[in-house]
Write a structure and sequence with these properties.
The chain is mostly helical. The chain has helices spanning 29-46, 55-73, 77-81, 86-106, 118-137, 145-160.
């Protein structure tokens, strides 16, 4: 499926602003499903698989970054993220979170904390990425695409594996300090 299989918005003005007018309320469940399938397929195409160079973190960074870039560039994003029918979006978001949770569970990332469980971290990371993306595509003017990609990945990374972050100052606690 390509972005051409989903109809573009009725007016070019809908691209850079929050959805207004008749087009915002006329996205069918089929259009929403096709839109989210387009995003999922883009992430799947770029996925290097479990044996990716750089390990699981590089694989997930590629998947999240591709998803955000595809959503950012898609002409229906502003209308979709502002759509009042959240059922199709929620279904797509839960599916994406379940897939991430499964990849985290079987990838040998070393992330196996008792609380929260990997599927809970996955749901939170996917919801955060969706929120960052929704905010960006409904703003006028939009922030730079790569800043959105970077922000989305950083937040997802902090939620998925906060102990594995490699940038910024690191602080170690003294034994028994907490």
């Amino acid at each position: 499926m390509t972005t051409e299989s989903v109809a573009p918005p009725a007016r070019p003005a809908d691209l850079g602003t929050a959805p207004r007018g008749p087009r915002a309320g006329h996205l069918s469940t089929e259009e929403l499903t096709a839109y989210f399938d387009t995003l999922a397929e883009a992430a799947q195409r770029i996925d290097p698989g479990p044996s990716a160079p750089g390990g699981w973190e590089n694989r997930e960074r590629l998947r999240f970054s591709t998803w955000v870039r595809t959503a950012y560039e898609h002409p229906l994003s502003a209308a979709v993220f502002g759509h009042p029918d959240a059922g199709a979006a929620r279904c797509a978001q839960h599916r994406q979170a379940a897939e991430l949770g499964l990849r985290m569970d079987v990838s040998g990332t070393g992330i196996r904390p008792a609380r929260p469980a990997p599927h809970v971290r996955a749901a939170a990371a996917v919801a955060a990425v969706w929120s960052v993306t929704a905010l960006a595509v409904t703003q006028s003017p939009r922030p730079p695409r790569e800043r959105v990609v970077s922000d989305a990945w950083r937040i997802a990374q902090e939620i998925i594996a906060p102990a594995l972050l490699t940038t910024g100052p690191g602080f170690t606690r003294a034994r028994g300090a907490w």
